[in-house]
TrEMBL record:
Signal peptide: none annotated. The chain crosses the membrane at residues 14-30, 42-64, 84-103, 146-165, 198-216, 257-281, 288-309. InterPro entries: MFS_trans_sf. Keywords: Membrane, Transmembrane, Transmembrane helix. This is Sporulation integral membrane protein YlbJ.
Length: 310
C-alpha cells in the first residue's frame, strides 16, 4: 500500500511538472517578442549590473579558497569569521560558493554549513554602492545606508547562528563528500575554471527568469485589470532580483516608499538567486532550511533598519 501511494504521488508530481512546463512553452510560443525582450533585458542587466561587480571577486575568492588549508581544525570563530567575510562581501551567490568550498576542504561540517549559508548571504558592496546607490538612488550615501542595513541584519542573524553553534563539536561530516587531499598545483587556474561555471549558472538563471517574468507579467495584465507597472515589479521581483529592482526604479522612483521597496526586493533575492544557491549548496548536501528562515528575516529586518537610517 505504501509503495502504491508513493508511486501515485510521484505520478502526480510528474504530471504537475509537465503541465507547468508545457504551459510555459505555450506562453513563450504565443508571445515570442515579449519573451525576447525579457531575455534581452536580463542579458543587459547581467552584463551591465552583475558581471563587472561579481566576476573579479568570485575569481579572487575561489583563488583564496583553493590555496591549501594548513589547519582545517582552526578555532571555530576563525573559520566562521572567514566564511562571513568572504561570503557576505562577495555578492550573490559567493556565500554559497565559499561555504561549499570550505566543506570540501574539511573546514566546516554540514550542520555548520547550513547555518553559515543562511548568515553569509549578501549582495556585493560594489553592486550596492555602484549600481544601486549611484545609478538607481543617485545618492552614494543612500547606498552606504542600505549596505549597512543589510549587514546589520546579517550580523544579528550571524550572532544567532553562533549561539546555535555554541555546543557544536565541530566534527566534519565527510560522508558522500569528496575530501581527498589533492595538491593544487595551479590554484588560480582552478579558481578561474570553477568561477566560469558559477558565472554561467548566474547568467542562465538571470536571463531565463527575466524572460519568464516578462511573459507572465504581460499575460497577467492582459487577462486581469491590473496596473502593468505594479504587476511587472511584483512578478519580476519574485523571479529575478536585478530585473525587479530595475522595474521598481522605472515605476516607483518618485514615491517615498522607493528605497524601502528596493531594500525588500534585494532582501527577497528572487527565484533566480535561490536556484543558484540551491544548486551550489546541494553539491555537498548543505541543509537549506536555515537559509529559508534567513530570507524571511531579511525581508522584514533590512527595510526596517534602513527606515531608521533614513
Amino acid at each position: 500500500m505504501h509503495e502504491y501511494l508513493s508511486s501515485l504521488h510521484a505520478c502526480e508530481s510528474s504530471m504537475v511538472n509537465l503541465i507547468i512546463i508545457w504551459g510555459m512553452i505555450i506562453l513563450f510560443i504565443l508571445q515570442p517578442g515579449v519573451a525576447h525582450d525579457g531575455a534581452e533585458a536580463g542579458a543587459y542587466l547581467f552584463l551591465h549590473a552583475l558581471l563587472p561587480y561579481l566576476l573579479p571577486y568570485i575569481i579572487l575568492t575561489q583563488w583564496l579558497l583553493k590555496m591549501p588549508v594548513r589547519n582545517p581544525t582552526a578555532k571555530r570563530w576563525k573559520r566562521y569569521s572567514k566564511a562571513y567575510v568572504l561570503g557576505s562581501f562577495g555578492g550573490f551567490p559567493v556565500g554559497a560558493v565559499t561555504i561549499t568550498e570550505m566543506v570540501k576542504n574539511g573546514e566546516l561540517s554540514r550542520r555548520e554549513s547550513g547555518l553559515l549559508l543562511a548568515a553569509c548571504h549578501a549582495p556585493g558592496p560594489m553592486f550596492i554602492l555602484g549600481f544601486v546607490g549611484t545609478e538607481l538612488f543617485d545618492n552614494p550615501l543612500s547606498g552606504w545606508k542600505l549596505l549597512l542595513a543589510i549587514h546589520i541584519a546579517n550580523l544579528l542573524f550571524f550572532c544567532l547562528t553562533l549561539l546555535l553553534l555554541k555546543n557544536n563539536k565541530g566534527k566534519r561530516d565527510q560522508k558522500n563528500i569528496d575530501l581527498e587531499k589533492k595538491t593544487k598545483s595551479a590554484p588560480l587556474l582552478e579558481a578561474i575554471k570553477e568561477s566560469s561555471g558559477v558565472i554561467i549558472l548566474v547568467a542562465t538563471t538571470v536571463i531565463f527568469f527575466s524572460s519568464l517574468g516578462n511573459v507572465l507579467t504581460t499575460a497577467a495584465s492582459t487577462a486581469f485589470t491590473v496596473d502593468l507597472g505594479i504587476a511587472k515589479t511584483i512578478v519580476l521581483s519574485i523571479f529575478e532580483m536585478t530585473s525587479g529592482v530595475q522595474s521598481a526604479t522605472d515605476h516607483f522612483y518618485n514615491y517615498p516608499i522607493f528605497p524601502y521597496l528596493i531594500a525588500s526586493i534585494i532582501s527577497l533575492n528572487g527565484l533566480s538567486i535561490h536556484l543558484q544557491v540551491f544548486v551550489i549548496a546541494k553539491s555537498v548536501n548543505t541543509p537549506l532550511m536555515p537559509y529559508v528562515f534567513s530570507r524571511i528575516w531579511s525581508v522584514v529586518a533590512v527595510p526596517a533598519i534602513l527606515y531608521l537610517f533614513m
